[in-house]
């Protein structure tokens, strides 16, 4: 049984990797890791932006429960309700040496020593570009190799987050920062939800360069893990927080916003080697999985379910995954429920249909469904047949052929919101908010009544 855990994560990646079929991006190190791992093809974050998603990843709880409903840095200031639910605390209590390097965005921003004490880390060193993160992670592995204690090392890369550069055009924040070079050697992959334009090619080439840059950092850390002789005793997890920082992706509950790369290399357990799992999994499932794989004590305050039986016993995957957005740079409350082949989204405000995550006022990539001068406001509810419409472009909410399935999804979403004690259920903030809740509850009750009638 592997003792150690190396959890590698990055910003804003979605599934934009060779391992997920993106042929134009250069990611040899992550592709090689994926080839030795169990790769989850249908893994989803709980939120399409950084802090709520990461807090779920590291606690196993939904945002409504862990309390991080928005960004944790100033001036937003969201924080974990109970920092002791962080996986570092859980592992530290069982004797693990715990360390955080690079990106921290799952709890309120504090000095490193204060963060360490609050979250259960022996040591925290936040910030730094790729090379700083690699240097610190390498040093941490060397110290861990000289210790008899098992280690949990949490390493976060800033890349491929957008970063300002003097090479950017006026009014634009791209992906270049100080060190990234665009990569279009193998062409560029324009997501199907974006228009194929010259500006989009420029932007995606930058993104591909940033992903390649991050991949090289992952390769350097994994090489050091091998050199120290730790690879055969270390579970390696790789994931990201949410989808790409592009229009109609990040900050939306479409799959492009919440779909994530997730793979685990688990030495000594043959069922985990070179596998692809197509069933639904959620970021909340990662913590219970790691606790089971390391024989650490489980906890009944975790919403997720261990993936061990899914991988090793072919147990059924999830029926649903759930998503939420409350606050990013403004209040834009949304909730979603997704099955293997369909999705329902509830929009509780009149905000634009897709929040702009480009961090610029001058757009390059443009959504394919932008047909007028503005992107417009969102519908109260959206329903998509993912089998025929994977990019979620045709809203079927008013199609009577789908009414029964819509009712079933509404029932599942309403139940989840109640189970998580969702704060949006009380005191509606606007007429749209009240309308959305009333509509969801009415449709959910229709399904519940039909289910009772079928049983009697």
From TrEMBL:
The Sulfatase N-terminal domain, residue ranges: 16-294
Keyword Signal: no
One Pfam short name: Sulfatase
Keyword Hydrolase appears in the UniProt entry: yes
Domain of life: Bacteria
Keywords linked to the UniProt accession: Hydrolase, Metal-binding
Protein's recorded name: Sulfatase
Lineage, uppermost ranks: Bacteria, Bacillati, Actinomycetota, Actinomycetes, Micrococcales
